[in-house]
Design goal:
single chain; 6-stranded antiparallel beta sheet
């Protein structure tokens, strides 16, 4: 068995200095059947290690209800088989542009649980979660014959808080559960972040995208000894719905990587391969400077990240330039680049054959239907990803007055007496036309992803204030939620009928027949916003707001011949049918 330790200046493998050349690849953003290929791509780029986060909310959707935590163990086994070491960043908070930064909705919505602090109720939940999670990590540490060489304490905590007691407790918990490899923290190279996020006797690392010498100089002021490492070298970036597509010049990124290595430091490429936010797990950010009180900026489904290995697992120009830089650190020739995954042989139309109105879908797959004094939040209705229908009556007779939603999170598609009346958002929360009473108002509110970074992380979803007619709150609100995972057991119980002729919202069902099953892109011309499943696999959210215009369909999801498609349109459908397209050649 080997031993990996932290020396005065270097990482040490059995006492010999070693440099870590790592790349981020999140197992939960890549179809499991494609792990081997993606890990092989990391090796071919010149990396010796893979880094992954662990999303708590994916694996514990309800307290004590653990779901396939073994997936992490299988991924670590795949990394070992690929000849890679592994760095694990278990959180409990991970950011990662992931829903709620990985924290479960029931945790941040629980009164009295102050997340990411020493608050006792929060610590009890973390202790239970880590008691299960670490069973996948501890036996796979390097000193036990596995690939795991380091484990992170929290994540970029200095960007959020300063509870050193909490960080120390978390480090002690990891040690107490059997973590024997080195622990580390990672923060931005700024004084307040490093003082807030690092703790004694735990290696501190820095996260940045450029100007390595200045970043490491700041880190050295706080930690005169120990190996230097950029734990997140931001070689690309992510996109928001309604924004532009973000790219970073490949040569600029390669030069920044070279500077890190010239400093004698280790590095972790964030991301080496980004993957996809399947099943609506994309998070959101808020602009607005230090307070992050600006508008919600939901992240797109693709997590391509302009990474050196693109969303479909193909090498980019950045890959080849990074491979050239990293080759200088290798002991010998780098492995051959694995062949590209098989792609769909021919484009194919999706034939939609049946439809069910959204009310019928909610009645069949939704949660309990109940009346509340005020609008309940998504957390109170136990909805993590999905939507909630709020119904409220305006008494009458009364004059036409403005209808406003206070504390609206994300989007509300509004109907007055069954007629579409508009789409409301946080910054446009009043209907354009006044409403006459009596009337029945329906508000279909969709979560576009919980905030994953900053002081507004963990905020509730839905209607956090109330519905007002003029200045009067409307009480007695009926609410019913629809979780996305309600579709996991299928849609056979949904009462489907004939296709509508007017582009109505609802659940569409159909098939697509393919030849040469392989990676594909799903195009949805004219469709507005919703989710798509292929053979029961949730591809994620589509939205005409862009910049993302197609959804990635992993090859293992498709099968030769007929494939079932479900399309949940939440606003306005198109008369044009979806199409599976052959991915274009990567330049």
């Amino acid at each position: 068995m080997s031993e990996f330790t932290v020396g005065d200046k270097d990482f040490l493998l059995d006492g010999r200095p070693v440099r870590l050349l790592s790349g981020a690849l999140h197992y939960f953003r890549v179809h499991e059947e494609q792990w081997g290929h993606r890990l092989g791509m990391l090796r071919a780029m010149g990396l010796t290690c893979v880094e992954t986060y662990v999303p708590w909310n994916l694996h514990e959707p309800r307290p004590g209800d653990f779901r396939d935590v073994e997936q992490l163990g299988r991924f670590l086994d795949a990394a070992r088989e690929a000849g890679l070491w592994a760095i694990v960043r278990p959180g409990p908070y991970i950011c990662a542009e992931w829903e709620n930064g990985g924290l479960p909705h029931w945790l941040t919505g629980e009164p009295g649980a102050r997340v990411r602090t020493r608050e006792e109720r929060y610590l009890a939940h973390v202790e239970r979660w880590f008691g299960r999670l670490l069973k996948e990590i501890v036996p796979r540490q390097l000193d036990r014959g596995g690939p795991v060489i380091m484990v992170q304490v929290e994540n970029e905590y200095g960007s959020y808080g300063s509870d050193q007691v909490y960080l120390g407790w978390l480090a002690d918990l990891l040690r107490g559960e059997g973590v024997s490899v080195p622990l580390f923290t990672s923060d931005g190279p700024e004084d307040h972040m490093l003082t807030g996020g690092s703790i004694p006797d735990v290696l501190a690392t820095a996260n940045f995208g450029s100007d390595a010498r200045a970043g490491f100089e700041t880190l050295r002021r706080h930690r005169p000894e120990g190996p230097l490492m950029c734990m997140e070298f931001w070689c690309g970036w992510f996109d928001h719905w309604g924004g532009g597509h973000v790219v970073r010049d490949a040569r600029d990124a390669a030069d920044a990587l070279r500077e890190i290595l010239e400093c004698g430091a280790s590095v972790n490429l964030y991301m080496a391969h980004g993957g996809t936010n399947f099943a609506g797990w994309a998070g959101a950010n808020r602009g607005g400077g230090a307070l992050h009180d600006g508008p919600l900026e939901p992240d797109v489904t693709s997590y391509d990240y302009d990474a050196p290995i693109d969303e479909l697992g193909r090498p980019t120009e950045k890959f080849w330039l990074f491979r050239e830089v990293l080759a200088a650190c290798a002991d010998g020739p780098l492995p051959e680049v694995p062949p590209a995954p098989a792609a769909l042989e021919a484009s194919a139309e999706v034939e939609l054959t049946a439809w069910a109105p959204l009310d019928a879908v909610l009645d069949t797959l939704g949660g309990p239907d109940a009346v509340h004094p005020v609008p309940p939040t998504f957390e109170e209705l136990d909805v993590d990803r999905g939507l909630v229908r709020y119904t409220v009556d305006i008494p009458g007779p009364r004059q036409p007055y403005p209808l406003t939603v206070r504390g609206l999170r994300d989007l509300a598609v509004v109907y007055v007496d069954g007629v579409a009346a508009g789409v409301l958002s946080e910054d446009a929360a009043e209907l354009k036309e006044p409403v006459v009473g009596p009337a029945r108002v329906e508000l279909w509110v969709e979560s576009l992803g919980r905030v994953n970074y900053g002081p507004r992380s963990g905020e509730s979803k839905g209607i956090a204030g109330g519905v007002l007619h003029e200045r009067q709150y409307l009480h007695g609100v009926r609410a019913r939620g629809l979780r996305l995972d309600a579709f996991d057991s299928g849609v056979e119980a949904v009462p489907f009928g004939a296709l509508p002729g007017d582009g109505a919202r609802g659940l569409y069902r159909g098939t697509v027949t393919v030849r040469g099953a392989g990676d594909a892109l799903l195009e949805l011309p004219g469709w507005t916003r919703g989710f798509v499943w292929v053979n029961g696999f949730n591809l994620g959210r589509y939205w005409s707001a862009g910049p993302q215009t197609s959804l990635y369909v992993p090859g293992p999801v498709l099968r030769e011949g007929a494939n079932e498609v479900w399309l949940l349109e939440l606003q306005e459908a198109s008369t044009a049918g979806p199409r599976l397209e052959i991915p274009s050649v990567n330049s």
